[in-house]
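Quick entry, no commentary yet.
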Amino acid sequence: YNSNNDLALRSGMGDNWAHSFSDRLNVVNGEPESWRQSDGYYEILYKLDASNFVSRTSAATAVYREPDPLTYARWRVTTGPGQVRWFDESGRMKYSRSGDRVFSYEYCEASGVALGQCPVEGLLLKVRSPSARSLNFAYTATPTGGAEGSPPRITGISADGAAVAAFTYDSLGRLKYAT
């Protein structure tokens, strides 16, 4: 968590948050330009042809355009044997595989905003494991005491229906308590 808001993380959990699910492809004009990993590592991608991109710093890293995005997602990133991540058109990670374990990631869509399930599109709502266990994330549209239009803040995390963490913010939207 970065309460000073000095980094634009685009992590999928609102401003200031980074987490182990925050890998993102930076997609510009429909093509991946770079890949930011959850640990902060950043790779510039270079185009080989219409469907293939590589990193010059990591020979194991390759990005492929999936011919059918319904397979998993539009972009597939491989980083070595059994290590694969799939990203949607906007660069959000949708699936990750390590060995034979595949995790899925669900984000707030326009329909979720309309139904009041989340305040804005793009926030990470759920991570589901191969055993069907899930982490669920809840948000508030305006931090307690924050100005109208303030960015959303994560307010809680639950696992399989049981509360795991709750977050409270001060009047400036900075993290005050985590329980």
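second:
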Amino acid sequence: SYENTNFGGGQIQTTSINVSGENVQASSSLFGQSFSEIIVVNGKQYSRTMGSEEWTEQTATVDRQSLTQMQGFANLPSEASSSENLGLETLGGSDAYHLSFALTPDEVKSLFKNVQASQLTSNAGGEVDVWVEEETSFRLKYEALIRNANITEQIGFGDIRVTATITSINEPISIAPPV
């Protein structure tokens, strides 16, 4: 979502990602309308975009890592300028440690390498909160805030908030190519 812009703020995009081994299904919505869907099964990628019911098949160009983009967050304890354990909280029925990390502008640029550099040139730092399940050490939720990012030329500068909630860890799911 975007916050503190000249136009206010609000949720713009929602993405849902399902992973089973190397198979992936991802769907995105913009302003509540289905925008795109990608399915990767056995090295083949199937995709479609808004307004089309027809699937396009090709050799996979995306994978689980590129779609989830959470691997950089593993370095938070060593990359963040400060960190704090905010204690145990209940999240989705599980007890989880709530960890908070403060980021300088340079640390934001380093952590969010997948964001266009021009968007982060004037950033004012940020923070990332992570909830880690007490029993299993699984990450259950990430919430990142980047202050003063250049959202788009039309919108200008504002804060970007990204929230990722991870559910159904190690539960069986089925991802199949479209019919």
